[in-house]
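Summary for the steering committee. One of the milestones for this cycle was to obtain a three-dimensional model of the protein with zinc ion bound, which we needed before selecting residues for the alanine scan. The sequence and ligand used are listed below.
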Amino acid sequence: MGPGHFAIAFAAKSTAPKPPLWVLLLATEVLDLLSYAFQALGIEDFGITTSDLQHGVQVLVPATIPWSHGLFMSIVWSLLAAGIAYLVWRDRQAGMIVGLALFSHWVLDFIVHLPDLPLLFSGSPRVGLGLWGSGAGLVISGVLEIVLLAAGTIIYLATRKRKPEKEAV
Ligand SMILES: [Zn+2]
């Protein structure tokens, strides 16, 4: 999934006064940033996919992304981020929301990805509901991203309006 992840950050900001918006935006993209880093280090491999509106996303060479997108490691990264946020803002809610924002990335990827998200590490069962694995599904997931982003932005702006001075980014 692409910009849909940011929707979670915008929506989450209303429940987390302390962490700035950019921290929440960053949190929702941590798993992808890790996957770029791990790919550069040769630990992970994106595989090869094609996508067109007739067939959706098709996997030619499956991805190997256990360290960035495995369920287990995603939980580890989320807990780590929650711990860091808690230490920075001395606030349980801040820690919880940052951790959840990070983990939301995995949940959204789980919905759209073809089964390439390992539960543990390489060789463990891989999951993914594969919404974008058909032409119609690819369109639906694109629409879903836009709807999510719009909804998240509206929630964010509505909350900002209510408490303008406290919610400054
Ligand atoms: Zn991802």
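Key point for the committee: The chain has a mean pLDDT of 93.
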